[in-house]
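DM from R.C. (forwarded with permission)

"hey, sorry to bug you on a friday — could you get me a structure for this? deadline for the figure draft is monday and I only need the backbone to look sensible"
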Amino acid sequence: MPEQSQSVTEARAAAAEAPPAGSVSRRTLLGTAGATGLVLGAAGAGVGYAAAPAQATALSSVGSDRAMFHGKHQPGITEGLQARGHLVAFDLAAGAGRTEAAALLRRWSTTAARLMAGEPMTQDDTDVARDAGPASLTVTFGFGNSFFGRTGLEKQRPSALDPLPDFSSDHLDRTRSNGDLWVQIGADDALVAFHALRAIQKDAGGAAKVRWQMNGFNRTPGATAHPMTARNLMGQLDGTRNPKPTESDFDQRIFVPANGSSNPAWMANGSYAVVRRIRMLLDDWEKLSLTAQENVIGRKKSNGAPLSGGTETTAMDLEKARADGEYVVPVNAHARITRPDQNGGAAILRRPFSYHDGIDADGTPDAGLLFVCWQADPLRGFVPLQRKLDRGDALSQYIRHEASGLFAVPGGAATGEYVGQRLLEG
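My reply, with the result:
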């Protein structure tokens, strides 16, 4: 659970809800917004596609915010954390190959584009998201290592998609790991996210079947007095050292370049997603004193500041020592081990969800992190960081990696294209 890979700082400001105004149906608004000059949210507009009463309250900014499906990169990578998420892997059905996969990705892309725009499915919509706006919905698609053998595209399989090595903290359930296809769904409304999940599953039809599926959550945008780094289920601020799109080397760390790369051409502007279900041993963690917890992480629990002093964003002083000669930031502290300058510059963009899947018979919570991280090359991003953590991270005794996957996520689809078209029709 490398700190360097920590989640994107919540990018959406807490906005006041829009004042009451005359409301119209989603179709009417999308068709007339340009003429009226109405703009809702930072990236677009949308309202519930049910006919609304004439004096209904307008959507809040949370409901109306919209992400774009078509673009250079797929959605769901650089956007801020979303309040609700679903991760789902599919295996192609017996007999299904390249032709069926292409048709499936075409269906999925069409559905994702409509739902992200706040529109219903083209047919058989379930109405689960009726009355809601886009709610920042994102849908992201990726290919697993096994996909290429199933579709006769072995020569197009990137070498970066080779299976991850084994790690000492792994206790992996193979039935909940990997898969031919991977879909990440995120939204700031639970019903909007579920609606998309159900639509994707229905679109799979007879071409693919669900291999595994996981549900996650984060803090809802606007739940705090001001935008701030999110907390995980251990109560720690989780996202302080994430790479930022404003940094000059962000793209080269996170995205596959369009030229001069060993990757196949279809991966241009894409990224690699490492997905891990990390169970937090919360009963053991919560028995620790506050001081002990902070020593495990290397940061103050209250505000995320390094134990060496300052604020959350202050550079950590790894050489600062106490009067007894011991380092202020312990040598096995999670934050010390995962610093890029301690790992040859290895960096990953972490965009996780927390999860809680109930309570075991002995009262132990099945809860933790659906860890999702992005990088241009997992062998230079996740793998060296996790190997370093394997050799002595103080946090390792309080977590357990229970499922794992690695997926090649191609660049975004241009208007008129579907995701993966350059692979499947190239």
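R.C.: lifesaver. The two ends are 37 Å apart (CA to CA).
me: no worries. Confidence is low (pLDDT under 50) at residues 5-56.
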